[in-house]
């Protein structure tokens, strides 16, 4: 099977373009962010904004940003996570690693694909407002499927509280016509309606702005897309929560690097450890969140 690896520059960002058996992956060293995943056949699985900006210190709109050591608004995280950051009033959304350069620690070609490994070590790159010793590693394996493994290692002497997410933007044909299977009967927190808890009934469909945190989620979820005649399958380990998001019309107009009508062709399903599913790692402990993605014909 043909394989090629190429280091390229997109704007300010150093990226890796990896091709294997007809599939293509594009990853930025800043944020260890997957920007593009094109399987060997069919449409891309990962959505990337047409207005994406490749700038130092700014997360790119789309792809798979890594949210860590907290997800979303710091003030909505458990007390232990909030108190770990010394300037909570200035805390950026989705943590501290999306706009920082990670280090390439491995690029290995095997029979079944290519694995790119990137790491962020707070000992080597200290964060003054978050004085904790930890290493975060993302292993990205491109083969017949795309597998992401996000590992946190507590290198310090005290407990390490974190929440996290792989903030995956999926490409869909039409948000009005797709549905998510696998969440029936799961409870979710509706962040747009006073953070009330609701129980899902049937598949998830979309008819307006959506921002929900699903709890006690199963290992497998599916996006069913009848127009593109495919099912995107997501299988996770080490995660019992998932965020489902689409900005719809009004919020789309307020988002950076986002066309006014782009909400129609994307949705986010973010495999996560948030709220009651957040983590506290003992000294020397490590934790791994795995997500594997692929598509099937309907």
TrEMBL record:
List the keywords (alphabetical): Isomerase
Enzyme class label: isomerase
Q: Name one GO molecular function term.
A: glucose-6-phosphate 1-epimerase activity
| Catalytic reactions on record | alpha-D-glucose 6-phosphate = beta-D-glucose 6-phosphate
Keyword Endoplasmic reticulum, does the record have it? no
Q: InterPro entries under this entry?
A: Aldose_1/G6P_1-epimerase, G6P_1-epimerase, Gal_mutarotase_sf_dom, GH-type_carb-bd
Any GO BP annotation: carbohydrate metabolic process
Give the EC number(s) under which this enzyme is classified. Answer: 5.1.3.15
CDD domains, alphabetically? D-hex-6-P-epi_like
User: Which Pfam families does the UniProt entry name for this protein?
Assistant: Aldose_epim (PF01263)
Similarity-based family: Belongs to the glucose-6-phosphate 1-epimerase family.
How is this protein named in the record?
A: Putative glucose-6-phosphate 1-epimerase
């Amino acid at each position: 099977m043909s394989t090629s690896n190429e280091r390229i520059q997109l704007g300010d960002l150093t990226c890796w373009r990896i091709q294997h058996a007809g599939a293509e992956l594009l990853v930025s060293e800043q944020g260890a962010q997957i920007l593009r995943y094109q399987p060997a056949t069919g449409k891309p699985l990962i959505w990337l904004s047409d207005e994406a900006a490749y700038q130092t210190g700014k997360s790119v709109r789309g792809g798979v940003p890594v949210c860590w050591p907290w997800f979303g608004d710091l003030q909505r995280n458990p007390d232990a996570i909030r108190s770990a950051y010394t300037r909570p009033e200035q805390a950026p959304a989705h943590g501290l690693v999306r706009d920082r350069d990670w280090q390439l620690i491995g690029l290995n070609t095997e029979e079944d694909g290519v694995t790119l490994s990137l790491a962020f070590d707070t000992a080597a790159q200290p964060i003054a407002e978050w004085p904790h010793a930890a290493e975060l590693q993302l292993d990205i394996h491109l083969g017949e499927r795309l597998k992401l493994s996000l590992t946190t290692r507590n290198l310090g002497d005290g407990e390490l509280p974190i929440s996290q997410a792989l903030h995956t933007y999926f490409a869909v044909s039409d948000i009005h016509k797709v549905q998510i299977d696998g969440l029936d009967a799961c409870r979710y927190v509706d962040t747009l309606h006073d953070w009330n808890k609701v129980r899902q009934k049937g598949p998830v469909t979309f008819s307006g702005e959506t921002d929900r945190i699903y709890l006690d989620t199963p290992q497998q979820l599916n996006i069913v897309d009848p127009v593109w005649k495919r099912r995107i399958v997501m299988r996770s380990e080490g995660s019992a929560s998932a965020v489902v998001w689409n900005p719809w019309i009004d919020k789309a107009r307020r988002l950076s690097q986002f066309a006014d009508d782009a909400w129609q062709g994307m949705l986010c399903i973010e495999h996560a450890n948030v709220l009651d599913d957040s983590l506290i790692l003992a000294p020397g402990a490590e934790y791994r969140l795995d997500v594997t993605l692929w598509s099937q014909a309907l």
